[in-house]
Amino acid sequence: MAYNGKRLIIYGVVGFLVATLIFTSVTTIGPSVIVPALTKSVWYTQIDATFNAHNPDVEKESLVVSNRIAKGVFLSIKTSVEVEEKEKVTPPSGVANFTTTIELFGETSTSTPIWSYTTHLAGLGRKHFTVTLSNDLVSAGNAYKIRFTTRLKITPPSPKAQAHVDLTRTFEETFTLLDEPSQKRLQEYVEKPGEALDADYYNWLLQTLCDQKGSYFMDKALNYTSTDAVFQYIYNQIAYKTDTQQYGQKEYFAKASETIAHNAGDCEDKSILLASTLYLKAIDRQTKVVAGKVLEKGHAWVEAGEKVYDPTNNIVMSKSDYYSYVTALYFSFTYESFSLLKDAESSMGTNN
Question: What is the pTM (predicted TM-score) of this model?
Answer without folding.
Answer: 0.83
